[in-house]
Amino acid sequence: MPQIARSIAQAYSNLPRPHRVLLGSLSVITLAVSVWRPFIYQPESFDNDADNYIAPGIIAKAIQLESSQLRALTPEASEPLDQPLPDDKIPQDELDDDDKTGADVGVREYVVSTGDTLSSILTQYGIDMSDVSLLANKNRDLRNLKVGQTLSWELNEEGELQSLSWEVSRRETRTYKLVNGNFKESVEIQQGVWHNKLLAGKMNGTFVNSAMAAGLSRSEVNAVIKSMQWQMDFRKLKKGDQFAVLMSRETLAGKREQSQLIGVRVRSSGKDYYAIRADDGKYYDRQGSGLEKGFMRFPTLKQFRISSNFNPRRLNPVTGRIAPHRGVDFSMPVGTPVLSVGDGEVVISKRSGAAGNYVVIRHGRQYTTHYMHLKKLLVTPGQKVKRGDRIALSGNTGRSTGPHLHYELWVNNQAVNPLTAKLPRSGGLAGQDRTEYLAQVKQVVPQLQFN
Ligand SMILES: [Zn+2]
Hints:
There is one protein chain. The chain is built from 9 helices and 20 strands. The strands form 3 sheets. Strands 11, 12, 13, 14, 15, 16, 17, 18, 19 and 20 form a 10-stranded antiparallel beta sheet that branches. A 5-stranded antiparallel beta sheet has the order 1-2-3-4-5, covered by helices on one side. Strands 6-7-8-9-10 form a 5-stranded antiparallel beta sheet, with helices on both faces. The chain folds into 4 domains: 2-35; 70-85 and 295-416, Glucose Permease (Domain IIA) (Distorted Sandwich), CATH 2.70.70.10; 106-189, Nuclear Transport Factor 2, Chain: A (Roll); 194-292 and 427-447, Roll (Nuclear Transport Factor 2, Chain: A), CATH 3.10.450. It has helices at 2-14, 17-35, 56-65, 68-73, 118-124, 129-138, 207-213, 218-227, 431-444; strands at 107-111, 150-155, 161-167, 172-179, 182-189, 193-202, 242-252, 255-268, 271-277, 283-284, 306-308, 328-331, 337-339, 344-352, 356-363, 367-377, 384-385, 390-394, 404-411, 414-416. It binds zinc ion. The site of zinc ion has 7 residues, from loops. Zinc ion binds next to loops.
């Protein structure tokens, strides 16, 4: 080997100088090209319907390549690392549960739906792939999650996974706690008794107060609001409107442990609205049609190059501190129309320091989308928008290193990766799932009686 190297070196030094220069620069260019692989979004790998994106592995790999060494090579349209974007509070309304202090902080919950895998669920929240592998090796069953099961997990302040709970069934919960760099499994079997309870009442004041007066707990009220979020706005209910809620509650030694919403019926202005739970943990109307409204994957008509990716654990190389990038940056010319990705209500539309002109839209009760560095705002707070509506023109305002759109998607008060997150989809149950659901509806609907 040293001999070969020596002869190559000799041949090289024997070349005339212009040749040496040419050969040298060629090698550098070849090396640069082989290292430089910009992440360009490929439209065919996604479908607008969130369930159908292909090959998440490829995307995850590309995201890793789009990191600091690339940023050194190409000037990217993004935000300076030392300047976090504002963490502006979304205006709360009467339906929001402001009692989120204490045990709930840092705990995330997710109901498994069709096509989900442990890695697709956790990585969209920015959890490290190495943690996912550790978990999957701990219990191989975690590679076979079932639709409707619930996962909840806890992160520390650095965004690192501390524990994961897996509700295998109503009776069995497995917990994986991080101990000395590995996850320790424990199994808990619930001993309680489940029974159904009908709670009915009339609107008198806010829905939250009326429902609690009818005997629902605050978390049960939240479940009702969530189940109906795409078909009705509980703030619009009038005095005297009626509701009936069927809960399944677990009691252990006389104490209520947990509960699950089975079905809800609301009568407003003489019209009845229903949401009934299917085995997938989602709520549908009496025909099994989806109540959720679909989202677009991208907030623009055309797809633009990604100049910086979602990375909640991004490190500032200078300070060594975490400088999360809670959204995706799309490099685009100033003045590109920015579209709302789903039906919703504008909650913020204003100029702020680092974010420049920006818009926040609330979709249902669980989703918000954020659009920053805009040139021109086209909507005002309180305005209702439809999916695909123009809300602004893109720009380069605030702390921005080039014309781009910074786009964030939040689910249950947490930023997720907008490129891989499971999006709300329209559409209902089909085939065997629908048949089973309709049989369930036949059982539940007659029970939803008003007082
Ligand atoms: Zn950004």
